[in-house]
Amino acid sequence: MGNDALKVAGLNHWFGTGEARKQAIYDFDLTIARGSLTILMGPSGSGKTTVLTLVGCLRDVQEGSVQLLGHELHGASRPMNESLRKRLGFIFQAHNLHESLTAEQNVMMGLQVHGLRGPTYTQAARRALELVGLGDRMTYLPQNLSGGQKQRVAVARALVGNPDIIFADEPTAALDKESGVNVVRMLKELGRARGTTTVMVTHDNRILDMADRILTMEDGRLIKDSGSLV
Amino acid sequence: MSRLLAALFGRLPIGWLQLTHSKGRLAAAVAGVAFANVLVFVQLGLASSMATATLRPYDFFNADIMISAQDANALTEGGNVARQWMFQALADPDVVAATPIYIGMMNWQQPDLTLALLTFGIDPNNDAFIAPDIVRKIAPLRLQNGAIIDFNTRGLSPDVAASIRPQSPQTFEVSGQTVTLFDTFQGGGGFGSDGHMIMSDQSFLALSGGRSAGAPDHILLHVASGADPAVVADRLRGAISDQSLRIRTYAAAIQQDITYQSTQRPTGVIFGFGVVIGILVGIVIVYQVLSTDVADHMREYATFKAMGYGQWFFLGVVLEEALILAVFGFIPGSIIGYSMLSGMREITNLPIVLTGTMAFQVFFGTLAACAISGALATRKLAAADPADLF
Ligand SMILES: Nc1ncnc2c1ncn2[C@@H]1O[C@H](COP(=O)(O)OP(=O)(O)OP(=O)(O)O)[C@@H](O)[C@H]1O
Ligand SMILES: [Mg+2]
Asked: Can you tell me the distance from the alpha carbon of B75 to that of B217, in angstroms, rounded to the nearest whole number?
């Protein structure tokens, strides 16, 4: 296993079939070092989410190579995908919490996938919620939490399993500026403390100065790479 | 409950939490499963009562082989058998006794209702062919037009039935002659009659104008002890000149009657159909509920899938829901089904019972139907990339 969290080479991707087939990603190459916070920017429709889902094991790779934590995703088997996904933390634009589970139970789902259960895992879930400042909202259902609180639950859920990489797709889009910045600051601090690699899609200018590296996409291509900013 | 399920599954009881989260949908789903259960219960109860009712008159007799006409699919159907074949049968060394039985409907006309009685004419002197609990009561049958009547006849009140004793007989008219009831026996209403009546063959023939002693409905045989009725029946089939006769062991005749009732007669087919419809309704309802539930939670499931949860997890959640629906639907379903069957038994006097086996079958049928629906409902989830589900 190399020192790279992610190594992408010659990635192309198409949506649709036949007449409607349309290329969304062109010749994408990228290497991301472990422990960094990378931000992916670009106009709407430029392919950011597509790239994130491809390298994050959420979509089958059609062409090119994606090495995630040292494993090739192109042609990976279902068990391989499932075991890799357990090592990732995802934060989506929409929080996607399970509506019938409490905050605590939602976070526990991030541990249970590793087969962790019992009182210790309840404890770990509570600690994760305390870390994101929701110690007093453990037993709330998502419907009784504000947007920012829900997003923080999602952050706790993504972090609780100690992932090697966190992928975040506009995690602050649904939040007001202040809570958005707070969520990202939290991600960065927690990530830094644990050496987690973070790849984040965002439009939020106030977050940019927290990045170690900024990538810009346009029309399915990577057009700008800031290189290391630290 | 949540804790119990958590301990049971070794994980958060997502299915339970999800179902109880939308109480309205849960109530509708449970009502749907209960409804399907009631449907199946009622049909099963009727179907089994039909089998019981069909069997009941066979129990009045005691025979090894029965000879019937070609078209006698049931005890009460088909043409007659010429009595001469009885004598041919008796020529077989293993046939030790034979008796003709005559069967017909007789009406007990009462001021406000008519009791249709399936009536058997038997030879009271040949009592080896009569079941032990009835044989004790046949002495009065030797009197002309003396009869005994089914205690459980539909429309015959238990008080009146209990009052019919040899010392206090009841009478009624059939074809302008007086029938005297001396006693009662345990029978039970059927689908084709209100109850049963037994009298001597002499009385039977006297009361049914046009019937001849030479043409009984069936002939019953006893074989020598140690002889196999099936082997003897085979032999008789070769020996008796009328090749069109149905010569079967008594047990086979009963079995064929039940099969005929449940697969050929409209009532039996309808009950069987009802069971199938009930099961289909149940599957459709549960499938509808579970697939809507899966569809409504697609984004959340996709998130779980993105987190690394596999197909077994989703199958487990949906099966958990199926199990919960099956159990919660079965409880009211069996209670309502049981009450309905009890009510129907009261009204119709049919031998309707709800047995443990039936309840067991319905429950496991429900469980299987729920599980199949659940498994089907997760198919879409299995095929898709998580990214396409958000
Ligand atoms: N499931 C899909 N089917 C067909 N086309 C798709 C699909 N998902 C994305 N596309 C197309 O691929 C291109 C890239 O989309 P993508 O969602 O990756 O953009 P994005 O950079 O994330 O945009 P935004 O900032 O609006 O989220 C777009 O042209 C889009 O229409
Ligand atoms: Mg996007």
From this structure: 8
